Amino acid sequence: MHGGAYAFLSASPRDPTTHIGRGLMERDGSTGRLFSIKYRLTMTADNEIVNPFSTQLIDALTGYYYIVHTVGFSPANIILDGDSAGAKLALALTLYVVENPNREDVKIPAPPGKLFLLSPWCDLSPICATPRSSWAEFVGIDYLHSDDSPVEGSDFSWSVRTARSRSEPLHLPCSDASLSVRLVQRFPSHVYTYEPSEATHDFLGMTWIA
């Protein structure tokens, strides 16, 4: 799933983020097909704030449901990958299907066989540009601007901050250390994360998975 702070980019084949999935296919002979999930963004072309969480999770679940129950792919053969915000969404989707296996109203698919997460934007809680934060440390070399990203995180999370605890695991999937215990038996068999060591942000990484 594509990145873009939930406010930009798309699942279009012309979008630059599609090179990630294509690159995986080129380098992994066992990956035969690529399916990009289009989720609703939190900002319109006119900068209007729309579609707060969990809109994106609903869209991701719908796409995953389609691949498993309509197209017929086995979850065990699916690699769920995402970049930045899309990686966080891939993780949130996996957490949801892991913890909701026996719903009566809808047949939730089993978890994917593998997760591949590139610089996952997992924790939106510490994104304010405080003096000791990564926003301040890497301001001279970071393509993410400290002025913009806290706003984008706020746009995505405003409904969660008013309706739920900020520790909601589907919203902040790296915030709950107990998840490693609760999910270990049904989590995908392989979880891969990639975070550049030169300038790792405060919100990257999932210490409870390690």
UniProtKB/TrEMBL annotation:
The keyword Hydrolase applies. Residues 2-133 form the Alpha/beta hydrolase fold-3 domain. InterPro entries: AB_hydrolase_3, AB_hydrolase_fold, GDXG_lipolytic_enzyme. Keywords: Hydrolase. It comes from the Eukaryota. GO terms for molecular function: hydrolase activity. This is Alpha/beta hydrolase fold-3 domain-containing protein.
